[in-house]
C-alpha cells in the first residue's frame, strides 16, 4: 500500500483533534483511503505548549516550510491570512494537495487558490470552512451537480444562533445574552466577527461560489449583524409565530445572484426555525430536488476535524488511485447583484399618532412605491403612550431600493412618531 | 468533448423526469460532467403510452438489451426484481456504469451487484434508492469517510410519515388517515409495502451496509410496521411530549450491528420530530462529527430524478477523466445482531387493578429481569373503568430479550388487566 506524507499546520482546537484521529485511527483511514496516511510533522508557534491530545513530541516543528516541502498532503489549521496563505500556495505550487478550514482566507482568495490548485494538478478541499461537521460543500458540488440550485439559506454561525435562540427562549436582551455566551465559551472575548456577521459573510461567499459555479468574495456580500436586535423585536416576532435567525442567503434571480447576511424572520414551522443553540444548518432549494436541509455541529474541535478528515481521505483516495482531477466546471460569468436590487419581504414596525387618515397615507406611500402589503396589524398603545398606535406591516417581496424609498417617505409623514423596526422575512 | 451514450430504462414517475433533464439541461450537464451525455434510447413496456414529458418518439424501444449493449451509462428506473436485475448485470458485465433507484433490488442483491461492478471496473450508484432527493449515501460514504458512524436513524418512508404526522395533528385513527392518504395520492391502493415497514427495511439494509462498510440484506432487518398504532398511542405520546415516527435504525455496539424498522417514540425536541408530512430525514451519529441530519423530499418524480442525475454526472465525470475507480473500502466482517440482543428504551402501558401491592409486584418483576425503570406515571381510570388504574412506564435501555421476559411475567400477574401498549423509545 502506498504511503502518503501528511503535514499538519496548527495544533489548536481543530488541529489537535486531527492529529488524534490521524494517530489513533490510522488503520481505518488507510483502509478507506487505499493508502497509509503518515503524519510527518505538526507546525506550531510554540513547540513546548501543552496540547489537548497526546502527540509524540518529536512531531512538532516551527519550520512549516521545510515540513511542507516533504509532504504529499498539507492540512492547514492555523487560521488567519498569513502565514496561512503563503504556506498553502507553497504546498499547491509543489503539487501537494491541501485541506483547510480557513473561511476568512477562502472568502478573500478562494478563486486564486482554486486556480493555483488546478494549474498544479493538486487538490484543494475545505468542507470544514462552512458549517463545521456538516457535509454541505460536497453535497452542493457533487450530489446536486445534476440539478440547478436556486437558493441557499444557512445558519452558519453558532455564536449568533446561540444568542438569538437564548433571546427567544428567555426574552433577555442582546447584551445580557452575549455576556452569558461569553461566560459559557460560546462567544469570544472579542465577538465582533461573529455578532457583526462577518464570519457568516465569509461562509456566504464560499457557499455562493460553489452553489452557482462562480467566484464570490467577502466584499460581494451585503452584511448586517445582530447587535441591533432587541428583546422587543424577538418578542414581536414570537407573537407573530416567527423567529429571528441570522441567515447567510445566496439567491439566483433573473437579475443576477445576490448574496447577503442579515437577521431574518422565519415562520416557526420553517425547518431552519428548529435549529437551536450553537447548531448550524443549511437549507438549499434546487429546481428538481426541491427543499433540502443539512443540520449538525457548526464548530468544535472534533466535529470540525471530522470534516477535515473526510476531505483528507478523499484527497488521498484520488492520489492513491492515480487518477487525474475531475473536470472543473467552467466558472459561469454572473452578474453580482447590487444590494439595492435584491428582493425580499419586510417586517416594518411603526409608532404612529392614533388619528384618522394615518393608515390611508401610509398605505398610499407603500402603493406609490410599488411595495405591496401582505398583512397589517394595528394595536392601540397602553396608557403610557395614549394617543399613539403601533402598526406592524409585512410586505410582499420587493426590492431594497423600493423599500428604502418607501421608508424615507413614511418617515416624513407628520403622523409617524418612529419607525420601530425593519427586518427582512424569508421562507414566507 | 467526449460523448457518453446514456440508456434510460423506464419512463414512469422518475424516468420521465430524468428524460426531461437529460434533454433540456444538456448544456449544463455537459459542463459539469466534462462530457456530453447523449440519451440514446428509453426502454419501456408500452411504446405508445402517453408520457408526462415530451420525448422524441423514436427514442422509445422495447428492446432494453439491445439498447444496453450500445451504452456507456445505463439508468435503471423500472423497479421490481426482473427484468431489472438481469439488465443491470448485463450492463455491468459489459463495463457500462449503472445508476439505479431500485431499493428492493439493492436490498436483495446489493452485495452481488457491487462486486460485479468492481470486477468489471464499472461504477454502480444508487443515491435515489434511499430518501429520494436527499444526498445521504454519498455524505455517508465520502464526507464521513474519516469518521466512524455509530448510529443512523431515518424517516425514510414518506407514506408512513404522512400518516403518523396526520394522526398526530388530527387525533384520527390509522384507518381513516390511511384512506385520506390514498385519496390524496400519498399512499398506494395496496399500501402493504409502506405501512408494513418493508420499504423502510430495504432502505435500512442499504444505509447500514454503507454506514458500517459491510453487507446487510433485507432479511437482516427486524421489521415492524405502523398498522397497530392507535389514536390512543399517539395521544398518550403527545401527552408525554413525544411523537411516534417509523424509523429505520442501524446501530453499532460492542455486541455487533443491529438493524431494525419499527414505530419509535421521540421527544418533540428531537430534530427528527420536526419532520412533517411526506418529508424524509436521516439522522446520523458519528464519533467525531456528533449529530448530523439530512432532510428533504423522499420521493416524487423530479426530486428523485435530481439524485439520479447527481449520480449520473459523477459517473460521467469519472469516465470523462479516464481515472480508475477509487479503492473500495474492504468489507468489514461484522456480527449481525439477533434482534433479541438489541437494546433500546421501552414505553409500556398497563391497565391494572387499583389495589395495594400491584406496583410493588410489577417493579419487582422489572428489577429481577434487569430492566430498570426511568419514569413511571399512574392515573386512576375514569368511572367507566372504576377500580382499575393506568400505568405508563418508560425504561432505561435494555435488551429485547429482557423486555420480552419482563412482559411475559408481568402479563401473568393476576392484577394486570391488559398490556395496552409496548413501544420503543430512541434519542432519549
Ligand atoms: N475552532 C472551530 O470550531 C473551527 C470550526 C471551523 C473552522 N475553523 C477554522 O480552523 C482553523 C483553526 O482553528 P482553531 O480553532 O483550531 O485555531 P487555534 O485553536 O487558534 O489554533 C491555531 C494553531 O495554529 C498555530 N499557529 C498559529 N499561527 C502560527 C504560525 N504563524 N506558525 C505556526 N503555527 C501557528 C498555533 O500554534 P500554537 O499552538 O503554538 O500557538 C495553534 O496550534 C481556522 O482557520 C478556523 O477558522 C475552526
Ligand atoms: N416514484 C418515486 O418517487 C421513487 C422514489 C425513489 C425511488 N424510486 C424507484 O425508482 C424506480 C422507478 O419508479 P417509478 O415510480 O418511476 O416507476 P413507474 O412509474 O412504475 O415506472 C416504471 C417504468 O418502467 C417501465 N417498465 C416496467 N417494467 C418494464 C419491462 N419489463 N420492460 C420495459 N419497461 C418496463 C414502465 O414502462 P411503461 O411506462 O411502458 O409501462 C415505466 O415506464 C423504482 O425502483 C422505484 O422504487 C421511485
TrEMBL record, chains A, B:
Pathway: Amino-acid biosynthesis; L-methionine biosynthesis via de novo pathway; L-homoserine from L-aspartate: step 3/3; Amino-acid biosynthesis; L-threonine biosynthesis; L-threonine from L-aspartate: step 3/5
Listed PANTHER family: HOMOSERINE DEHYDROGENASE (PTHR43331)
UniProt KW keywords: Amino-acid biosynthesis, Methionine biosynthesis, NADP, Oxidoreductase, Sodium, Threonine biosynthesis
Name of the protein: Homoserine dehydrogenase
Lineage start: Bacteria, Bacillati, Actinomycetota, Actinomycetes, Micrococcales
Similarity comment: family membership: Belongs to the homoserine dehydrogenase family.
Task of the protein: Catalyzes the conversion of L-aspartate-beta-semialdehyde (L-Asa) to L-homoserine (L-Hse), the third step in the biosynthesis of threonine and methionine from aspartate.
Family annotation (SUPFAM superfamilies): ACT-like (SSF55021), Glyceraldehyde-3-phosphate dehydrogenase-like, C-terminal domain (SSF55347), NAD(P)-binding Rossmann-fold domains (SSF51735)
EC number from the UniProt entry: 1.1.1.3
Catalysis performed (reactions): L-homoserine + NADP(+) = L-aspartate 4-semialdehyde + NADPH + H(+); L-homoserine + NAD(+) = L-aspartate 4-semialdehyde + NADH + H(+)
Family annotation (Gene3D superfamilies): 3.30.70.260, Dihydrodipicolinate Reductase, domain 2, NAD(P)-binding Rossmann-like Domain
Cofactor: a metal cation
Limits of the ACT domain: 347-427
CDD domains: ACT_HSDH-Hom
InterPro entries (alphabetical): ACT-like_dom_sf, ACT_dom, Asp/hSer_DH_NAD-bd, HDH, HDH_cat, HDH_CS, NAD(P)-bd_dom_sf
Amino acid at each position: 500500500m502506498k504511503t502518503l506524507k501528511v503535514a499538519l499546520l496548527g495544533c489548536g482546537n481543530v488541529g489537535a483533534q486531527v492529529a488524534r484521529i490521524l494517530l489513533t485511527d490510522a488503520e481505518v483511514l488507510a483502509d478507506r483511503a487505499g493508502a497509509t496516511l503518515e503524519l510527518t510533522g505538526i507546525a506550531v508557534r510554540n513547540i513546548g505548549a501543552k496540547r489537548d491530545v497526546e502527540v509524540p513530541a518529536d512531531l512538532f516543528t516551527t519550520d512549516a516550510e521545510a515540513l511542507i516541502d516533504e509532504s504529499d498532503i498539507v492540512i492547514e489549521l492555523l487560521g488567519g491570512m498569513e502565514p496561512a496563505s503563503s504556506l498553502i500556495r507553497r504546498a499547491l505550487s509543489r503539487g501537494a494537495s491541501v485541506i483547510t478550514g480557513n473561511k476568512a482566507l477562502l472568502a478573500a482568495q478562494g478563486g486564486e487558490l482554486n486556480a493555483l490548485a488546478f494549474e498544479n494538478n493538486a487538490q484543494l478541499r475545505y468542507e470544514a470552512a462552512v458549517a463545521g461537521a456538516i457535509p454541505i460543500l460536497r453535497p452542493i458540488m457533487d450530489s446536486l451537480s445534476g440539478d440547478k440550485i436556486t437558493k441557499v439559506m444557512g445558519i452558519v454561525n453558532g455564536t449568533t444562533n446561540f444568542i438569538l435562540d437564548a433571546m427567544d427562549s428567555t426574552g433577555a436582551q442582546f447584551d445580557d445574552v452575549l455576556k452569558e455566551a461569553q461566560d459559557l465559551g460560546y462567544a469570544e472575548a472579542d465577538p465582533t466577527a461573529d455578532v457583526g456577521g462577518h464570519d457568516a459573510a465569509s461562509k456566504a461567499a464560499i457557499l455562493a461560489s460553489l452553489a452557482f459555479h462562480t467566484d464570490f468574495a467577502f466584499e460581494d456580500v451585503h452584511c448586517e449583524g445582530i447587535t441591533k436586535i432587541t428583546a422587543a423585536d424577538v418578542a414581536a416576532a414570537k407573537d407573530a409565530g416567527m423567529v429571528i435567525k441570522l441567515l447567510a442567503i445566496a439567491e439566483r434571480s433573473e437579475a443576477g445572484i445576490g448574496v447577503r447576511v442579515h437577521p431574518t424572520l422565519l415562520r416557526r414551522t420553517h425547518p431552519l426555525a428548529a435549529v437551536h443553540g450553537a447548531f448550524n444548518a443549511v437549507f438549499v432549494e434546487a429546481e428538481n430536488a426541491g427543499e433540502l436541509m443539512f443540520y449538525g455541529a457548526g464548530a468544535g474541535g472534533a466535529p470540525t476535524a471530522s470534516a477535515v478528515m473526510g476531505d483528507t481521505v478523499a484527497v488521498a483516495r484520488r492520489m492513491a488511485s492515480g487518477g487525474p482531477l475531475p473536470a472543473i466546471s467552467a466558472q459561469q460569468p454572473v452578474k453580482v447583484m447590487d444590494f439595492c436590487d435584491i428582493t425580499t419581504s419586510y417586517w416594518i414596525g411603526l409608532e404612529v399618532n392614533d388619528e384618522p387618515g394615518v393608515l390611508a397615507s401610509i398605505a398610499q406611500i407603500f402603493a406609490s412605491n410599488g411595495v405591496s402589503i401582505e398583512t397589517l396589524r394595528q394595536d392601540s398603545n397602553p396608557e403610557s403612550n395614549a394617543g399613539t398606535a403601533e402598526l406592524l406591516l409585512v410586505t410582499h417581496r420587493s426590492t431594497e431600493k423600493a423599500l428604502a424609498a418607501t421608508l424615507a417617505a413614511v418617515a416624513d409623514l407628520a403622523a409617524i412618531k418612529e419607525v420601530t423596526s425593519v427586518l427582512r422575512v424569508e421562507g414566507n
